[in-house]
Amino acid sequence: MRFIFSIYFVISIICCVKAQQPYSDDYKLSIDSSISKNRVKEKRSWSIPKKATIFALALPGSGQIYNKKYLKAGIVYGGFVGLAYMYDFNRDSLSKYQTIYAAKIDGDTNTIDLFPNRSEAAVKSDRDFHRKYRDLSLIGFVVLYALQAIDANVDAHLKEFNLNEDLSLKLIPNVYAIRPGLGMYNGFTLQYNF
Fold it and tell me: Which 8-state DSSP code applies to residue 194?
């Protein structure tokens, strides 16, 4: 196992070192010229994701509406309604089972008669079950609130994303190909343009 991990670690280090090699001069020139052309457009494009995020943080689902993703807004509102129902149901059940459990411990005969077939351990188990799912629904509120804000931000960023016309992927077979360091080999080359 250590041998496999060592090989994986060495390959990872080599890939990281190779990934840090500088770009060619042609690439740097094309980047510099495109940066000056897109400065005005960049300022406008940053305001849309910022607005969508602020809307989503102020009122959940409004960031999706701002991005014109109405189905996503409906899903967000449905999630909040479902979590609110889950919280309310489990809160009420927790209070009911807490009262019953306290009565069983105290020996109150009025409440014990309402649930004669339930043991003290069964009532305690039901109380703990509803407490757990009440707490999970609160965590769900926080997670859903954060996810809908992140979704609004990412969706606003992708709204202005343009795909290049020259986007292609080719699978090229190599039969008896020769590469320095490898020698003669058979295989496939995956070539992509973007």
Answer: -
Cross-strand bridge partners of residue 169: 192
Residues contacting 135, CB < 8 A, separation 6+: none
**Which helix (H) or strand (E) element contains residue 173?**
strand 168-179
Phi and psi torsions of 50, nearest 5°: -65, -45
Q: What is the pTM of this model?
A: 0.59
Count of CB atoms within 10 A of residue 73's CB? 21
Q: Which residue has the tokens 């400065």?
A: 39
Q: Is 83 within 8 Å of 137 (Cβ atoms)?
A: yes
Taking only the tens place, the pLDDT of each residue in 35-69 is 555 555 555 555 888 899 999 999 999 999 999 99
- Rounded to the nearest 10°, the torsion over CA 3, 9, 14, 20 is 180
- Domain map (residue ranges) of the chain: 44-161, 163-194
Nearest CA to 90 out of 140, 127, 121 is that of 127
Whole-number Å distance between alpha carbons of 156 and 72: 13
